[in-house]
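[Discussion] Sanity-checking designs against the backbone

I'm trying to build intuition for which residues belong where. Below is a structure token string of 157 positions. I'd appreciate it if someone posts a full sequence so I can compare it with mine line by line.
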């Protein structure tokens, strides 16, 4: 990767909510104790809304027919990776579109397959998840919490 022009990767993320307001959090297989929401890169020419549905399906096994879109965060959110994590794939960080979805009684057996990106999952409060994510992701998750509390939680009923 060029040291002179590091880039931020175009990315999408998904907040999967249940009616009670908890979100589906996932523990990374490669970093035990690191919990996060599904996210991934946008392919060249791909619409962000299509990308987020693809990423949710790829990472969790949950298809688009099992979730309902509640909204999208009104701003692009970004985080910079620690320099030692910069790569050709991710550049120096991510610039993300975040979407909120409702889903009940979601079955996640496919997401916990050996070698999957995630090794465990649990329902939890988004605010609690924001306190547990990697420090470089925390400002993004805090923005997700604020918007969730202001705009999304009332749509869950």
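Best answer:
Here's mine. Compare freely.
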């Amino acid at each position: 990767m060029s040291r002179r022009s590091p880039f931020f990767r175009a990315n999408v993320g998904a907040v999967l909510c249940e009616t009670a307001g908890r979100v589906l959090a996932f523990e990374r297989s490669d970093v035990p104790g690191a919990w996060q929401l599904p996210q991934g890169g946008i392919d060249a020419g791909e619409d962000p809304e299509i990308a987020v549905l693809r990423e949710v399906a790829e990472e969790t096994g949950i298809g688009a027919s099992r979730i309902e879109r509640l909204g999208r965060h009104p701003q692009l959110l970004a985080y910079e990776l620690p320099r030692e994590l910069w790569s050709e794939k991710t550049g120096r960080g991510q610039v993300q579109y975040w979407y909120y979805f409702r889903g009940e009684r979601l079955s996640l057996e496919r997401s916990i397959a050996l070698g999957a990106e995630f090794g465990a999952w649990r329902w939890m409060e988004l605010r609690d998840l924001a306190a547990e994510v990697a420090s470089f992701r925390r400002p993004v998750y805090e923005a997700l919490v604020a918007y969730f509390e202001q705009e999304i939680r009332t749509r869950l009923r």
